[in-house]
Structures are given as structure tokens and as C-alpha cells.
Amino acid sequence: MEAVLLGLGLALLPVYTFESGSVQFSHIILTLFIAIRFSYRNHTLTKASIFLILLTILSFTVESLAVIIGAASYASFLEPTYLLYNSMILIAFSHIPLDQKRFRVAIITSLIVAASIAAVYGLAYGSVQRVSGGGYERTGGAFNNPNQLGFFGVCVASIAALMYMRDLISRKLCVLMWVMSLLIVLISVSRSSAAAIAFLLIFGMGAVLNKKRLSPVVFVAALAGVGTLFVAFQLGLLDQLQSVARLQQTGSSQYDSLSMRGYSIPFHNPLEFMFGVGSEKALVGTFFTRIEVHSTWWSFMGKYGLLGFGLFVAVWLIWSRLIYKELGLLGLLIVVVPASINGITGNYSRFTALWILVGLPLNRSLWAARQATPDDRMLQPRRPFVPPPRYSQGIVPGNG
């Protein structure tokens, strides 16, 4: 039953029946799965989950004070609710027994189904936004906007990379999921997602060649690939691609600057700088049009100040260190960096797929027995020397 709920919840991730910020069917199904998992009472909190819970408590405190003084409505309590739900996602996915085949099959199969739904719906039935004067169309698929669709493609590609690096899926299946993710990103015409997926695929080819080390040849090939794309772009050979058409218009909109994305939110006193201004005041834009901060990173700075930003960064650093320690520099580049790139100009802090991506690497039920080879030692932290049992008993060569 658990595996069925898990698979169904993941498969429905790209299907948004209601407006953004509302509860979707996937949220309900995954909540049922979480409730069953939590009933076992064998969940120890990881450091990342502890920091995320602290961020949830801070969110509830700041939003409560804003409501009490009349600076916000009760709707602002949605923000800590989102964080609480994603905290449970993080904890649950970090404790799924991946050593059991039924859970592995449920995750892998459902992600393929979800990617297929996102791609097919986006191509055939997706809601289409035509940008005036842009000459291109953007589709959100079954999501509510194209940026969600693009980021979902990046998350699927990163999860596929993680499972491949952990020997949970084959090379061919990983490449297939990358191709599907690339298609999702291309039809979304999302610039940040395009940059993230391009980065992942460039270094992902290195993982396909040798997942245990990042060869210098891969660096050279990556630079050559980037150079080739740049030359093709300059010569106009890529002008027929809608993603390129949108990229060429970068800077023509007032929202293309980092300041309009929310990095210029003013703090009027030390308290606001330390604890933020709450979700309903952390808005950017003109007097007539106010939108939330378009940055996963800076949204927490605006809403919950330096303290909230620090707690979120702590979660990210713990996740990054864990990936680097287990999978080396190559794993860090294709699992962590793409989502980090996407988060610079898009706020995906409430996106369930993001916290699944963070939670799965914390799972220790299938720790990859990955030993450093001589060529790989420069990419991994040094491990302490443990003497063999014979030496540890005081027996050394020549004294026996």
C-alpha cells in the first residue's frame, strides 16, 4: 500500500488541477504516504531536516507577529504550512527503505510516468501563453505556469543523475530520463531551466563515461561544447528554437533585472534585516503590480531576514556536503548545481519535487559503497587511516 501511494503521488506531481498555492491531488496522496511512514516511529531527524523545521518555526513566528500587529492577513499562515509539509517530505524521503525493491520500483517507474505526463501534456494539451511581440509560445503543460514545468524537468534530471550515480538505474535509463527532461525544459522555454539542464547534461556526459571520476577530458569536452553552442548562437543557426528566441530578448523586460526579481527588497530597521518582513510584505514590482520574490535563495531573506536565509543556506550546505562526500565533485555538479542555478531567478521554495531531490540523498538505506581510486582522491575528502586488525593489536612486521 505504501509503495502504491508513493508511486501514485510522484506520478501526479506534474498535474496541477487547482491554482498555484492550492492543495493538489499529489499533495493529498503523498500526505497519506507520509502519515503511514511516520506511524512506524523510527525516524531520526537529520541535520538538514532539523534546520528546515527551525525555519518552519521561524516562519510561523514571524507570520503570527505580522497578523497580530495588523501587517498581514491570516492567509500569510500558508507560508509556514508549505514549509511544514516540505519538512515532512524531506524527513519521509530520507527514510524510505530503498533496500526494498518495491520502493525502488515505485520511485523509478513513477518518475518516468510523471516526466511522460509533463512532456506529452505540454506538447499536446498544455495551456499556452503567447508573449506579445515575442514570436514564441510558452506552455505550462499540466502546471500553472511554464517556469514550474521547466524546473520540474530539471528536478527529474537531477534525481535520475542521483539514482544512476548510486547504481539504482542503468546508464540507458538515465540517458532516457535526461532526454525526457530536456524535452520538458525546451517546451517550457524557461531561460533559467535551460541553463540548468545544459549544465547538467554537459557534465552528465562525464558521468555516463565514468561515474567514479571527473576526467580532465570531460572539462575540455564541456568547454568545447559551450564554445560550439556560442558560435552557433552568434551565427544565427539556433534562431528557430523558441528557447533561443526568448534568450535573445533578455533585458527587454523590467523583470529581467535582479533588482526586480527581489534582490532589492528594502529593510527599514535592524529587526527587519534580522527577522524579515513576512510573506505578504516581501513583494517586488510597481505600485500597481506586486509579485513575490523571484528567487528561491533571496525569498527567505526577504520574508525571514538574515536568520531565515541562514537556516535555508544551512540546509543547502548540508545537502551539498553529503553529495560531495558520497559522489565526489561530479555528483555535486549534476545533482546540486542545476537546482541552485534555477533558484537564482525563480522561487521554487514550495516546490515538492525540490524537497524530494534534497531528501533522497539523505537516505542511508542504500549507501553506495564507493571507494576512492588513486585518480579519484583529489575529488573526494580524505578518509582517516584505519590500521588493519593485525597492526592495531601491536603486532608489526618484524616483531611477530
UniProtKB/TrEMBL annotation:
<feature type="transmembrane region" description="Helical">
    <location>
        <begin position="105"/>
        <end position="128"/>
    </location>
</feature>
<feature type="transmembrane region" description="Helical">
    <location>
        <begin position="217"/>
        <end position="237"/>
    </location>
</feature>
<keyword id="KW-0812">Transmembrane</keyword>
<feature type="transmembrane region" description="Helical">
    <location>
        <begin position="50"/>
        <end position="76"/>
    </location>
</feature>
<keyword id="KW-1133">Transmembrane helix</keyword>
<feature type="transmembrane region" description="Helical">
    <location>
        <begin position="148"/>
        <end position="165"/>
    </location>
</feature>
<feature type="transmembrane region" description="Helical">
    <location>
        <begin position="326"/>
        <end position="345"/>
    </location>
</feature>
<keyword id="KW-0472">Membrane</keyword>
<feature type="transmembrane region" description="Helical">
    <location>
        <begin position="351"/>
        <end position="369"/>
    </location>
</feature>
<feature type="transmembrane region" description="Helical">
    <location>
        <begin position="297"/>
        <end position="319"/>
    </location>
</feature>
<protein>
    <recommendedName>
        <fullName>O-antigen ligase domain-containing protein</fullName>
    </recommendedName>
</protein>
